[in-house]
Amino acid sequence: MVSIEDYGRYETAWCPGCGDFAILKAVKEGLAASGLEPRQVLFVSGIGQAAKAPHYLNANLFNGLHGRSLPVATGAKLANRSLTVIVESGDGCNYGEGGNHFLAAIRRNVDVTLLVHNNQVYGLTKGQASPTSDKGFVTKAQPGGVLAEPFNPISVAVTMRAAFVARSFSGMMDHLAEMIQEAISHHGLSLVDILQPCPSFNKVNTFAWYKERCYVLPDEYDPTDWESAMKVACEWGDRIPIGIIYRNDRPAFEGQFPVLSGGLLVGRELDKSALARIIEGFA
Ligand SMILES: Cc1ncc(C[n+]2csc(CCOP(=O)(O)OP(=O)(O)O)c2C)c(N)n1
Ligand code: SF4
Ligand SMILES: [Mg+2]
């Protein structure tokens, strides 16, 4: 049986009170509850405080460029479908610099779990606004307050009929671990947007601010009903819904490549004569 101890314990470099600690623990719990051993899991992350999270557990890791995790994760999943592939990074990384990859990954529906630590700020670079910062949010770089409307990742994902769309909060560990487990078991692009305080650089959206507003969707809520999901996805402000907001059974990207039906790409011999013919075609 897999336990969270299999995922190890490491010294971290986060500020006291940061929501990242709870997310790290919930990720380990979600993996252990899924019965996955570290060797079966590949994390792909970018740059940021959130992107450091997979440095602090035992598993395979590709840490690449800011915003570019999803293309790497897509390639890894196509090459080796036996891996559980998890992208873990921040709101800036996934919705800002990586925004276009977010849209492409939803359209393709590659079987990847996407965990976004959403603190509504650029934490690592000391507090500039991110795409999810609320309008009016004051920072050193935006002293007059943010003028743009915030990006709502949940409503965008539901609009595009992403395979699995959930939201949780770092202050609700059991709920978060359950959402992560559900996302891992869902076949297709599975987003968990995780609200988390950044006590150093976001003095507005604090632990108390989220705690006061987050409510768990009732048991009778049906996440397969797209129209209800659209309404729930747009809720933000005094009340913030938490839970599985939308899910469907769209076929995953990697199942649609005839070339992949003959076994894992990583396990195949290179056909040098076929490669030579392709190269000659460009001569
Ligand atoms: C292409 C590129 N643009 C900008 C940066 C600088 N940069 C590094 S981390 C970061 C912000 C990270 O914010 P977020 O993804 O929200 O993670 P957090 O630190 O808040 O967890 C930025 C702008 C970079 N490394 N690469
Ligand atoms: S800057 Fe914010 S997000 Fe980064 S470790 Fe500190 S509290 Fe956490
Ligand atoms: Mg952030």
The mean pLDDT is 97
* CATH fold-level assignment: Rossmann fold
Beta percentage is 15-25%
Bin the helical content: 25-40%
- Main sheet: strand order: 2-1-3-4-6-5-8-7
Q: For the terminal residues, how far apart are their CA atoms? A: 55 Å
Attached small molecules: thiamine diphosphate, iron/sulfur cluster, magnesium ion
Question: What is the oligomeric state here?
Answer: single chain
What string gives the helices and strands in order?
HEEHEHHEHEHEHEHEH
In CATH, the architecture is 3-Layer(aba) Sandwich
CATH class call: Alpha Beta
Q: Give me the CATH superfamily.
A: Thiamin diphosphate (ThDP)-binding fold, Pyr/PP domains
Q: Strand pairing plus helix content: what structural class?
A: alpha/beta
Low-pLDDT stretches are none
Count of spatially separate domains: 1
Let me know the number of strands.
8
Shape: globular
